[in-house]
Write a structure and sequence with these properties.
The complex is a heterodimer of chains A (290) and B (305). By secondary structure, chain A is an all-alpha fold. Helices cover 74% and strands 3% of the residues of chain A. Chain A has helices at residues 2-29, 37-55, 59-89, 95-118, 141-163, 165-175, 187-212, 220-234, 239-260, 265-279, and strands spanning 131-134, 137-140. In chain A, a hairpin with a 2-residue loop joins strand 1 (131-134) and strand 2. Chain A starts with a helix and ends in an 11-residue tail after the last helix. With 305 residues, chain B is mostly helical. The relative contact order of chain B is 0.16. The chains are: A mainly alpha (290), B mainly alpha (305). At the A-B interface, helix 3, helix 4, helix 8 and helix 10 of A face helix 6, helix 12 and helix 14 of B.
């Protein structure tokens, strides 16, 4: 039971980490608190479901289709919905509050569209549903693949941010948005790209999740919550923190579900969140704010 | 003098509204109940969120708890006592949530309040399934629509009274300073946490009462019914449309939007969510400060931009 929980926790945690990386891009770099974030995850899961069940496409290939599509969609959404708010905030509005309200509207909009098309039922498709023996634990191959993918994408992105020039610019905007223009960084442009990139990561998390989990049109809210908690846990704008916090959350959920009660996983998530807010508001891996 | 005229007008209006059940049929009365309860929710929301600018998405957490208290106790206690218990629980819950989250920056509060209803729903569901063994509960109370309407009307009058009183008191002043700049507020000796906590608790207790009073209309309730996030959503959008820092703002937001959404849900039940989201986005873009502010600026001849 211990090893099973450990493996399941890591699989879950991997997808949370992936999702949280996207959100920390959107919130940490673009300053957009996207409450519709989980909807991007769910839309990607449904898109994969459609691609797999109608075109018989391999979910791995759909990753290559859905990811870039989400990038473009997020890029456009930023231009249409967020850019005017950013502009308004320079004249005394509040970007944080405005973005929360607008994306809250977006949440209902996307959820409504999904409900109209797919209804409220649970959806899933069967993919690589063969048992695999891993360290003496019998686990479905799709979960192992999901974990591998989440880790590959997450760590790959982390390396990209850590070691490329583009990553340096991102970190500059995340940490000192007011100083970034001094070194000729176009903050608006970086913000838009980061938002689009975040949307793409959300979609990739959605594709991965759809490989081993059932999902519904209304499940987005829970993903938003979890991604947010992971982001705060890791320290806003801290990419490595998000990665680690995602894994921790997944493990905690798996253990609570195995040893206490599956109905208490969300409650445990919240408990962690609350304790953390009171104890270290800057996050487990964040630097303390002076 | 002017004060007393305003007060008589207010009392007269409430009295007049009290006759509504004699005029309206069932459907009309149902609409009135909806409008009055959302007016209370929006006013209670504005009470705290208007001046502090903390966006609370937790309305339905308190509303749902109120309804649940009635469902649990309706066979064991006298009704007024049940309402008292409901307010008490709402108060304790809001204090607990407030102490935990109000010290923190705005966005953390938004996030926590966003998921609070979901958390309470899961905890109650877990408790009912594992401890009591049943999920749904029945409410058998001898109330008809007009009784519920009258109770809500009284609560509405009280809520508007509280809102007016706070606006004209030291606490209201303190709240506005906090909303403008917390650093300044602490320098002039305002106890920020205590003031916010007080307002949050009052606001949440009122929301709990609305849920408790409305509960008998459901007859059968279940966590997924009373913790419907749309209630929080509608409350925010109605308060914002009217303008949350104006005393009468909530009314101006509630009436048009309630009727609009009633019409939408009757005519486009499948596309309700989509339209709801679209209306919200439009309001944030077009009327960021609320419709009253917009009218004011228009009347004063300033450019309506």
């Amino acid at each position: 039971m211990l090893t099973t929980s450990l493996v399941i926790g890591l699989v879950l945690g991997g997808t949370y980490a992936l999702a949280a990386l996207g959100l920390t891009m959107q919130y940490g770099v673009s300053r957009i608190m996207n409450l519709a974030y989980g909807e991007f995850v769910i839309v990607a899961a449904f898109a994969t479901f459609v691609l797999v069940s109608t075109l018989d496409l391999d979910p791995l290939l759909s990753l290559l289709l859905v990811g870039p599509a989400a990038f473009i969609a997020s890029y456009v959404i930023y231009a249409v919905l967020m850019a005017p708010l950013v502009k308004r905030s320079q004249k005394g509005g509040s970007l944080e509050i405005d973005s929360i309200l607008v994306t809250f509207g977006l949440l209902f909009l996307i959820q409504g569209i999904l409900l109209v098309i797919f209804g409220a039922d649970f959806q899933s498709y069967s993919y690589l549903n063969v048992p695999l023996n891993l360290f003496g634990v019998i686990i479905a191959a799709n979960q192992v693949l999901a974990f591998g993918l989440a880790m590959f994408l997450g760590v790959g992105l982390f390396l990209l941010i850590k070691f490329t020039r583009w990553g340096l610019i991102l970190r500059a905007v995340a940490q000192r948005p007011e100083n970034a223009p001094l070194v000729a960084i176009n903050v608006d442009r970086v913000a838009q790209l980061a938002f689009a990139f975040g949307g793409m990561l959300a979609a990739q998390a959605g594709v991965v999740i759809s490989m081993f989990q059932t999902f519904t049109a209304t499940a987005g809210v829970v993903f938003t919550m979890k991604a947010l908690i992971v982001v705060i846990m890791g320290g806003v704008g801290n990419f490595l923190g998000a990665l680690l916090a995602g894994l921790i959350l997944g493990l905690v959920e798996a253990f609570v579900s195995a040893y206490l009660d599956p109905g208490l996983t969300l409650a445990s998530t919240y408990l962690i969140f609350l304790v953390l807010l009171l104890w270290r508001p800057q996050g487990l891996f964040g630097k303390s704010v002076s | 003098m002017k004060m007393s005229i305003k007060f008589s007008l207010f009392a007269g209006l409430v009295g007049l509204l009290g006759f509504a059940p004699l005029v309206f049929e069932d459907y009309g009365l149902g609409l009135m109940i909806g409008i009055v309860s959302y007016a209370i929710l929006a006013q209670a929301w504005s009470l705290f969120s208007g001046p502090t600018r903390y966006i609370s998405l937790a309305t339905v957490a308190f509303y749902g708890v109120g309804a649940y208290v009635v469902a649990v106790l309706n066979e064991d206690l006298a009704y007024p006592l049940i309402l008292l218990v409901a307010v008490g629980i709402g108060l304790v819950m809001s204090l607990a949530v407030g102490i935990a989250t109000l010290r923190l920056a705005g966005v953390y509060f938004v996030i926590f309040s966003f998921g609070l209803a979901e958390l309470v729903r899961q905890l109650i569901t877990w408790y009912e399934v594992n401890i009591t063994g049943t999920l749904g509960r029945y409410i058998f109370l001898p109330f008809e629509a007009q009784h519920i309407y009258w109770m809500l009307l009284v609560l509405a009058a009280i809520t508007f009274g509280i809102a007016w009183w706070i606006k004209n008191s030291r606490t209201g002043m303190a709240l506005r300073v906090i909303g403008e700049d917390e650093v300044v507020a602490s320098h002039v000796g305002i106890n920020i946490t205590r003031t916010k906590l007080l307002l949050f608790a009052i606001s949440a207790s009122i929301m709990t009462l609305v849920g408790a009073i409305q509960a008998p209309r459901w007859v059968y309730i279940e966590p997924s019914i009373v913790f419907n996030p749309t209630v929080s959503f509608l409350t925010v959008i109605m308060a914002l449309l009217g303008g949350p820092h104006r005393l009468l703002g909530p009314i101006f937001g509630v009436i048009p939007l309630f009727l609009l959404f009633e019409w939408l849900s009757a005519n486009f039940p499948n596309h309700y969510s989509i339209l709801l989201g679209a209306v919200f986005i439009l309001i944030v873009f077009l009327l960021p400060k609320g419709v009253l502010e917009f009218i004011d600026r228009f009347r004063l001849g300033g450019a309506a931009k």
